């Protein structure tokens, strides 16, 4: 899973601000993407960035020109402004400013105003990290995590990200939460993942707030708490996070109150019109299973699920499998259902992994196989008190010691199907 690099400045209180996160929020306000159109909010964000320095003013102009915010869109002129930003960041970096060296590395990583060059980006990040820049340490950790300009190395990534986190870098805490959930470079630990997300969210990370909404919604690393889930999703949704908006809309759509349902359905519809895959996934679930104020529509559901599948979205694969398993708008076909579940499972869908494990456990659509059932159900069970976890316990109870040994070895040796959180698991 690719993690984002960042370009930052620090305000008078030494609080970090991610420039491109702010610029993208300004763009969402300007175009009304995931929130009401608000040009005054756009201006406030852009003015704040513009005041920081000549380099950041140039970045601001480059983004405005490249995206057409308040001016005609012109990618060529946008690149000219980014070139000016690179000049000033280089000047500041050569005078010993570590954050500026890291920001110059960001421009090389993205090819903004300078040729895209991952090796050069990593060199600038390393130089800045050696000067003690937490953001550069974070960016270098991300490079090791993704193999950008350096040889991919999860353990080096964890070491660098932990160092950045120890210096209060909130993005590093958010990425460490992901690594502990996935078991990359560290022992898998949903509880520790939750703790890092909570730390990052309290410090202002929108991504971490959205992740907490999911964690509370399914009981991942903490007790299941729907009120807390809604609260964290609302916080992230207010900052334009599409994943949070889609899941928040899902809660509203399941409400018995027509007013809340209408609000949720409108949120989903607007997000779908903008091509947001999380919203499409949630809407597909509603169209398959129905809710109090909306009857199922299998034809539309299958169209949306197929659209998601064409985009490689694991939730689309899973939901098509559900339709074939239960004969919802299509004939019952367990082999097809198993095939779609496997595609979802290998893409990281916990729902797909759970469903495939269940089919292996009972031998429906696939040949009965306790080892495969154990493997897929264990892959799908980071949270206790779920159907998948109970099914895992049931399968394990009837296995021989040799079968358990082989299943555990398979789980260790084949880490490919990482979980992909495609939305709250409303159907087990």
SSE topology sketch:
Blueprint: E1 8-10, E2 16-18, H1 19-31, H2 39-50, H3 54-67, H4 75-94, H5 98-110, H6 118-130, H7 134-146, H8 154-166, H9 170-182, H10 190-202, H11 206-218, H12 226-238, H13 242-253, H14 258-273, H15 277-289, H16 298-310, H17 314-326, H18 334-346, H19 350-362, H20 370-379, H21 387-397, H22 401-413
Antiparallel strand pairs: 1-2
Q: What features would you describe in this structure?
A:
By secondary structure, this protein is mostly helical. Among the domains are: 8-168, Serine Threonine Protein Phosphatase 5, Tetratricopeptide repeat (Alpha Horseshoe); 297-428, Serine Threonine Protein Phosphatase 5, Tetratricopeptide repeat. The protein is 68% helix and 1% strand. It is built from 22 helices and 2 strands. The protein has helices at 19-31, 39-50, 54-67, 75-94, 98-110, 118-130, 134-146, 154-166, 170-182, 190-202, 206-218, 226-238, 242-253, 258-273, 277-289, 298-310, 314-326, 334-346, 350-362, 370-379, 387-397, 401-413; strands spanning 8-10, 16-18. It has a two-stranded antiparallel ribbon with strand order 1-2. Strand 1 and strand 2 form a beta hairpin. Helix 9 packs antiparallel against helix 10 and helix 13 (242-253) runs parallel beside helix 15. The protein starts with 7 loop residues before the first strand and ends in a 15-residue tail after the last helix. The relative contact order is 0.06.
